[in-house]
Amino acid sequence: MEYLPDYYVDSKQMAALLMAQEIELDNIAAGILRQRDDMYVMTASPQSIRRREKMLRIQADPSTEPLDFRRKRIINRQSMKPPFTQRWLQEQLDKLIGPGLAVVSVDVQQFILYVTTNIENANLFKEVQHTVQSVKPANLVYQQNTSLNHRIGVKHTTKRRTVSWNYKLDGSWELGEKPFATLGPEVTL
């Protein structure tokens, strides 16, 4: 009311009109902020994420896929622009599933693209497959390998034995008379 002329200060009608306008203006301001947030995938509302998934023809299941994964998937799909290189694919998979969980390699002699992953989430696995199938050249065969993140223990022991040869190769020995060689005791080093 402070910005109105003095004539309207005591008017009950003007006060009621300003209160109604204030609610509408607050709703408009909130809508503008929501619209600004929906312009960016990482701050978008679930409704905006659903609309973007529909535009990209992604069949999402909000009951099993968290909103954060759905946002990463949209960014992944929108950033698939040529040219595609092995390094680009490695960076995309690192962004999508995390650094070190996927290794991309190419056998140029056999025309095979290997992607070795350590993924337990089925949704992520499907998205990795979609990404690779979308960007791989037609002359490469895609080979999916699975890795395990477990430690393997190796125990090493070295043993030694002396060998005494009982025969000479000069024709003076007869076959079967003595063992060909005698083994000494086994010694652990």
From TrEMBL:
Highest taxon, organism lineage: Bacteria
The organism's taxonomic lineage, starting at the top: Bacteria, Bacillati, Bacillota, Bacilli, Bacillales
UniProt xrefs under InterPro entries: Phage_Mu_Gp48
Originating organism: Paenibacillus illinoisensis
Any single Pfam family the record assigns to this protein: Phage_Mu_Gp48
The name this protein goes by in its record: Phage tail protein
